[in-house]
Specification:
The chain is mostly helical. The protein has eight helices and no strands.
Length: about 200
């Protein structure tokens, strides 16, 4: 760890191994359950669940912002809303990459709004778990892994992909609940910022 850049060490200290292990374990479990026929998941049900979870998460994030007026919660609401618009499929083939990039740039530019919350390991780990679940879902959607996954029938990949997306959505919903307002004086100055390596 000492050989890593200061910013990488700062982030790594705020991540839990569970942020990556839990989504992977969920993926493996759902693949086995569906492939073995132990459970059956309806795609329309999962898509509806995704809309409900994301919509609820956006509302909760906006309520948190209305209560404490901390911009982080507004950024979080917009972040989740981007995924909600993708689920609504307002635009055929809509991909939120450009909007996400703009939001990340805004978060970096106004990092005083973000860093105090990311200093909490549980928040950083929840957001990382959501991104890990979305990454797996994208790989399944683009059929990048199905060629070498042993034994599983092709019919399981669509429900597994949707289940991974719902898992990511639920993780974002939980993050809106566990993020606590920093309160008076809470800001970038209250966070132990990573120092630059000399």
């Amino acid at each position: 760890m000492q050989g890593l850049p200061a910013r990488v060490r700062w982030l790594w200290q705020r991540l839990s191994l569970a942020a990556f292990a839990v989504p992977v374990a969920f993926f493996a479990t759902m693949t086995w359950l569906l492939d073995a026929g132990h459970v059956t998941l309806s795609i329309p049900f999962l898509e509806t669940m995704a809309l409900v979870v994301l919509g609820t998460a956006v509302v909760f994030a906006l309520l948190r912002y209305a209560a404490c007026r901390e911009p982080f919660f507004l950024l979080l609401a917009v972040f989740i809303a981007i995924f909600l618009t993708r689920e609504l499929k307002w635009v055929n083939g809509h991909r939120p990459h450009g909007l996400l990039l703009l939001l990340l740039l805004l978060g970096w530019w106004r990092r005083a709004w973000v860093l105090p919350h990311l200093d909490r390991k549980v928040v950083t780990s929840l957001l990382a778990a959501a991104m890990c679940a979305y990454f797996i879902a994208v790989q399944l959607d683009e059929k990048r892994w199905t060629g070498f996954m042993p034994g599983a029938k092709l019919t399981v990949w669509s429900p597994v992909e949707e289940a991974m997306e719902v898992f990511g959505h639920l993780t974002l919903l939980v993050s809106t609940l566990v993020c606590r307002p920093m309160g008076p004086g809470g800001g970038a100055d209250s966070v132990a910022r990573p120092s630059e390596d000399s």
